[in-house]
Amino acid sequence: MSDDIANLRKFVAPEIVFGAGARKTVANFARSFGARKILLVSDPGVQAAGWVTEVAQDLQMGGFEYELFTDVSPNPRSEEVMKGAQLYTQHGCNLIVAVGGGSPMDCAKGIGIVATHNRHILEFEGVDTIEMAIPPLIFIPTTAGTSADVSQFAIINDQQERMKISIVSKAVVPDVSLIDPETTVTMDPFLTACTGVDALVHAIEAFVSTGSGPLTDMHALDAIRLVNDNLVALVKDPTDLKLREQVMLGSMKAGLAFSNAILGAVHAMSHSLGGFLDLPHGMCNAMLLEHVIGFNFKSAEDKFRVVAETMGIDTRGMNNLMVHKRLQDRVIQLKRDVGLVEGLASRGVNLSDIPELSAKAIKDPCILTNPRRSSKRDVEVVYEEAL
Ligand SMILES: [Fe+2]
């Protein structure tokens, strides 16, 4: 590829409705896609919070039949995708609505892929592996962080191999994302912290990614600012709707940025970790963030200076070494303020696990856009620092 073409950038996004009450437009959108029967995908936690019943009622009032599928784990498993796809086909569905966090949304993407291609979901690992258009997807996120509702990523857990696979394709960008901050009030402070830090990591990784550009940078920087300015206050007062809205806006912008600029070593390493230990994704990212910044800093010094400034650090008069240190300190402080202080060892990772974790991480597509090229040994050293 010539340099001119390699430097071109594209930007893919769903149709987005943002704001309190956005979820209530679901039946209108289902109608505009000619829905006949809908597969409604969620998980038991979101169902218990009451959001599934509400969306189901709205669909019924709109005159739609639906089939409910809530058999989705916190890290969605390949078998769950296959089961959901079977249900989709068996009931003659022609549209998927997902309500929930990243897990039901990623599972819904997988269901759409399998229902169209009639092959196992694990065969679609990698970039641009999807050949046919998948059914219309309408997503209603109930967390503010994963951004599966705007992204071209689906992350599925392969239980047998104890790893997560990444599927990256514009085919899995939902058609419609109904982003409604009211749905996030049912998140507890821990989940709010995990998903908020995930959004911050999305924004930082997208900004320093080798796939970044003007179409994504503005969203990435806005997201860093919104999460940095509002997340700590939100974790202290999870009922504040204004703060919910600001963090959700930050999450959405981070999602638009990373979906198009892709991510980096934090996500490559955290996918490997999350598959290995079945830990919350945002927590895995949090345990790795400052260590990956340390590894990457020299390869993107000017960009990390902008990240530092966007996180409120006055870098005037500082050399790069000082900016590096202050940025890492700021990240550690923010994590501490939202209660994410653990290292890998406290979650059961041993030194002897690191070679296997690293071997999987360097195969993850997210490593390809990391600003610094990373060998298996490099990744091992970062895991060791994060123990
Ligand atoms: Fe993430």
UniProtKB/TrEMBL annotation:
The keyword NAD applies. This is Iron-containing alcohol dehydrogenase. Residues 192-386 form the Fe-containing alcohol dehydrogenase-like C-terminal domain. The keyword Oxidoreductase applies. Keywords: NAD, Oxidoreductase. Residues 14-181 form the Alcohol dehydrogenase iron-type/glycerol dehydrogenase GldA domain. Pfam families: ADH_Fe_C, Fe-ADH. It comes from the Bacteria. Its cofactor is Fe cation. Belongs to the iron-containing alcohol dehydrogenase family.
